[in-house]
Amino acid sequence: MTAEEILTKAGVRPTHVRDAVLKRLYEAGCPLSHGEIAAHPGMKRYDRVTIYRTLYTLEGAGLVHTVQGIDGAWRFCAHPPDRTGCPGNHPHFLCLKCGKMQCLTGQRLPWVEVPERVRVKGKQLVIYGICTACGTAEERNKNK
Questions:
Q1: Per-residue b/e over 100-113, b at no fewer than 16 CB within 10 Å?
Q2: Which of 100, 120, 116 is nearest to 33 (CA)?
Q3: Which of 48, 49, 47, 42 is nearest to 19 (CA)?
Q4: Which of 34, 63, 83, 117 minimizes the number of CB atoms within 10 Å of its CB?
């Protein structure tokens, strides 16, 4: 299914920027910040405000969800119809060194009891630490 078909099916009018942002998130396969999306060479033709508005339009349509790391940056995960991307109901890992976030899709979020008559709209858990690449680089630097 193309990004244009996904947008149409979700009830969102397809535009060039919506198509480009959705494709970028699908290609990345991990949560991206607004800055990471805007910095991609294919996104240079769109201004940052338009990209922000597009991300929140896609979120409102249920095509992406936001995850905030302890660094304060919001990151956006795509929800492809075939569910190969980030479905949202799992924890994320944030590297404190490089700032990259990844989906931990093989794990479910823990069950938490919520007060009566409360409707849960989503769950979020961010685990943070040092990723393998940064940890390996740190070890190499120690051994020099």
A1: bbebebeeeeeeee
A2: 100
A3: 42
A4: 117
Considering the entire predicted model, what is its pTM?
Answer: 0.73
**Amino acid (one-letter) located at 48:** R
Structural domains of the chain in order of their starting residue, each with its CATH number: 3-142 (1.10.10.10)
**Token pair recorded at residue 57:** 């339009």
Position 141, amino acid: N
Considering only CA atoms, give the Rg of the chain.
17
